[in-house]
Amino acid sequence: MSSMPPTAFHPIERSILNSLSNNDHVGTHLLAASTGLSIDQIRRGIEWLKFKNIISIEESSTQRVFLASEGMEAAKKGLPERRLVNSLKEGKVTISEVLASGAIKNEEINAAIAGARRNQWIQLVEGKMVPTPLAAKKSPEETFIENLLKREEGGGGLQISKLTEEEKRVLELLKKRPNYIEIKEEKELRISLTDAAKQKIIPTLTQEEKKKLESRLLTTELITSGKWRETNFSALDVQAPAPVIYPGRRHPLIEIIEEIKEIFVSLGFSEIEGPIIQSGFWNFDALFTPQDHPAREMQDTFYISGAQIQAPPPLPPPIPASKDQISKISRVHEKRWKGQWDVQEARRLVLRTHTTPVTIQRLAKVKPDVGRFFSVGRVFRNEKVSYKHLVEFHQVEGVSTSKEASLRDLMGLQKEFYAKMGIKRIKFWPTFFPYTEPSLQSMVYNEKLEKWVELFGMGIFRPEVTKPLGIKNPVLAWGGGLERIAMLRFGLDDVRELYGNKLAWLRSVPKCQL
């Protein structure tokens, strides 16, 4: 091997060579610590130097002992024999009393007694177990486990080859206890300079070259003092992996909620909010849902147990609505559904099954000639949790009213909303909803599934909904589950993944999606 000038070496190689010139038979982790390079950079530099026959590599194997699950539990709570002695000191002198205290499990009692007798911690006096003065002294097993715990907290177990004869004896005792210790074999590379490199390469790494290596980073001091003009900086390794940083951020679902709110505001909508507990009157009756409809049964709706809107007799049961509204809605139900309207059913309190009761109450209160409102809130359905259903989820809802409002306007609003969400392929499908007529189902194309999927329901509020509440103009309404949009955005096929809080997935979701 001929002598090579320092300039023929990459900065990574020069750092490794400088470290090896002071240390022989060095491991990769020690090289990384001494040079400030990453493990990947060290491995890359070693391959380069090995190819140039400048270094030699020896592979060694080391056995280390670590605490297993039961050993870790013993390190925290104590060995069974120690817990036995502690129970005896508390006055529990028989086996039944010790087991009843819960200090020792039934399957541990034999090992606890054997260990305590081996350490001469207990003796039998008149058929009772009594602790001896030696019980105050730690056993070799306790000391070994404590040392092992300290080494694990520092990042590594105990190297078996460096154990004393006494420690090896204790290790054999602990190996007889199931799941107390774990022995792992670790392979380590030992790198050293070849004789030729020591004679021809290292002398060429002059003190000036070493000084240049110290100026790898541009610091504030170099800039402010102007010394950077006189400093020779080493080349940058553009292929070196950058450290991955995971800063704090909002949950991706919250990001979508905020994005949807911004879209609604940009379209001229105002946000409205309301309580999640609603009366059956506003959740169902005001929306022309018959009182015997399956959606009002307990297998579909969460009712507040034993709760109704209370009123002292002999006053009529109050509902959060005017007498005129209650009267008109009850007449509509009796006329159209051909049955007796039950005020007690309307008084029942439910966890809202949609956000529409909040919307309809706002419209009934302000009766706008022209208005646009939206809401994003939690709703509840008594459904079996599956890959596409949750018992609690978010609903997005928007309404628009004006004298000339039409179904054409509604479809236009939907297309504009979806376009701002990045959804381009949209179509509408006729369908039925209890409180809108005509009604449509919006369909969007899922590129991942390569098929059309349902998203939002939409329609114009029926006269049976608007007229009893004094709303004169047509009301365009649409809404649906926000989680469905999130699944499309993130390419998920199971809605439960949104709430799994798996760090790997949360970190993989980009902040800005193109």
Write the layout of secondary structure elements.
Layout: H1 11-22, E1 26-27, H2 28-35, H3 39-51, E2 55-67, H4 69-77, H5 80-89, H6 95-101, H7 109-118, E3 122-125, E4 128-131, H8 140-153, E5 158-159, H9 165-175, E6 181-193, H10 195-200, H11 207-213, H12 220-225, H13 252-266, E7 270-271, E8 277-279, H14 280-283, E9 303-308, H15 323-337, H16 343-347, E10 348-351, H17 356-366, E11 371-380, E12 392-401, H18 407-420, E13 426-433, E14 436-446, E15 451-461, H19 463-466, E16 475-481, H20 482-490, H21 503-508
Parallel strand pairs: 7-11
Antiparallel strand pairs: 1-6, 2-5, 2-6, 3-4, 8-10, 9-10, 11-12, 12-16, 13-14, 14-15, 15-16
Helix pairs in contact: 2-3, 4-8, 5-7, 13-20
Account of the protein in words:
By secondary structure, the chain is α+β, with helices and mostly antiparallel strands. Among the domains are: 6-60 and 187-230, Arc Repressor Mutant, subunit A, CATH 1.10.10.10; 67-180, Arc Repressor Mutant, subunit A (Orthogonal Bundle), CATH 1.10.10; 247-272 and 398-514, Bira Bifunctional Protein, Domain 2 (BirA Bifunctional Protein, domain 2, 2-Layer Sandwich), CATH 3.30.930. Helix content is 38%, strand content 21%. It is built from 21 helices and 16 strands. A seven-stranded mixed β-sheet has the order 7-11-12-16-15-14-13, sandwiched between helices. Strands 1-6-2-5 form a four-stranded antiparallel β-sheet. A hairpin with a 2-residue loop joins strand 3 (122-125) and strand 4. The model is unreliable at 311-317 (pLDDT under 50).
